[in-house]
Amino acid sequence: MIRFVKPSLLTLGLSLGVCMGSAQAQDDVKIGFIVKKPEQAWFINEQKAATQLGEEKGFSVVRLAGEDGQQVLSAIDNLHSQGAQGFVICPPDVRLGPAIVNRAERYGMKVITVDDRFLGPGGEPIESVPHLGMSGYKIGQQVGKAIAAEMKARGWDPKSVAALRITNYELPTAKERTDGATQALLESGFVKANIFDAPQQNTDTSSAFAAASPVFSKHGNFDHWVIYALNEESVLGGVRASEQYGLSPDQVIGVGINGSGAAFAEFSRKNPTGFYGTMAVSSTMHGRQTADNLYTWITTGDKPKANTETTGTLMTRENWQEVRDDLGL
Ligand code: FCA
After folding, report:
1. CA pair distance 258, 312, nearest whole angstrom
2. 141 FRET partner, CA 20 to 30 A, in 179, 232, 246, 295?
3. So what's the pLDDT on residue 311?
4. β-strands 275-280, 313-316: how paired?
5. Treating both helix axes as pointing N-terminal to C-terminal, what angle do 97-106 and 69-81 enclose, rounded to 10 degrees?
6. 173 CA to middle of ligand 1, Å?
7. Over 50: is that where the pLDDT of 11 sits?
8. Residue 228: which of 263, 191, 185, 264 has the closest Cα?
9. CA–CA dist 306, 131 (Å, integer)
10. How many Cβ atoms sit within 10 Å of the Cβ of residue 121?
């Protein structure tokens, strides 16, 4: 019986050949899920959803942090030594794409990106790596439209409103979203000269707060402000800065993107804040779908499609619990 046969070099060679040449047996699949900001609710939920799917389907998911290039490369080494066949990653810097792909190829591991797409040396997306992420420009436009509608509901004159645009132009994911929002705002009659940039170093609340504070002090002649950015964490940084400057919630309309725990906590506060809403996207779906795509690729050899784009729903203080349930968050 085969179970009792000691593996000879020949059988080892054969089984290696089988592993490399065809699909993996379903019961020994292990994948990594590496994220750039492991403490952010969006990414916690994404990793949790991937793990949950693994439990349902019978594969294991190793959750890892990759906050800089060094940490990502050691995470990949670590996954390889544990026998993982591939990983899903939201990279800390999209320009690390070629280095990450190299390392994965060296180990024969499959890679899928989630949320932030790898860029090649010429700044173009690396098409050979399957990606799943938001449709950035469209979701940005939804942000701009939601802001314009709320300005109208509050009876604000678009000519005398300022915008705090928290930007991160190094990251295409971010630029697409803020560009979409800007375009929708301009179409609604917003004055271009009243849009002020606050370039953030990072995609989190504290870097947005630091970027936003000086903008309010510099343009103290405006009574009404709108705030947008690539995500709700950053918009929250802007809203906190507006409070510190002395603006009240009825003077501020901030609309974010994500619909994660950061927004739930804000909507659960007793009194409304300047954080009016957020375009909620299902981080549960992002985590499950990418893990599932990778699992299918490993077990059947079917490579997922190059790019999958997801959409969002406006979540406010009024409907957040309903939207959360609808999106399985
Ligand atoms: C980027 C942002 C995250 C989230 C994700 C979908 O990675 O930094 O906050 O919006 O895209």
Report:
1. 8
2. 246
3. 86
4. antiparallel
5. 20
6. 8
7. no
8. 185
9. 6
10. 9
Whole-angstrom distance, CA of residue 274 vs CA of residue 236: 9
Q: How confident is the model at residue 16 (pLDDT cuts 50, 70, 90)?
A: very low
Give this prediction's pTM. 0.90
The strand pair at 195-199 and 161-167 is best described as parallel
Residue that is written with structure tokens 């784009």 in the block: 309
CA distance 284 to 264: 15
Residue % of the chain over a pLDDT of 90: 91
Which protein residue has the closest C-alpha to ligand 1 atom 5? Answer: 115
**Residue 224: in which H helix or E strand, if any?**
strand 224-228
Structure tokens at 225: 């402000």
Token output for 137: 């420009």
243 or 15: which leads in pLDDT? 243
Consecutive H or E run containing 70: helix 69-81
Instruction: Give residue-wise pLDDT tens across range 156-199.
Output: 999 999 999 999 999 999 999 999 999 999 999 999 999 999 99
Place of tokens 């320009």: 95
Instruction: Return the number of other C-beta atoms located less than 10 Å from residue 245's C-beta.
Output: 15
Atom from ligand 1 closest to the CA of residue 37: 8
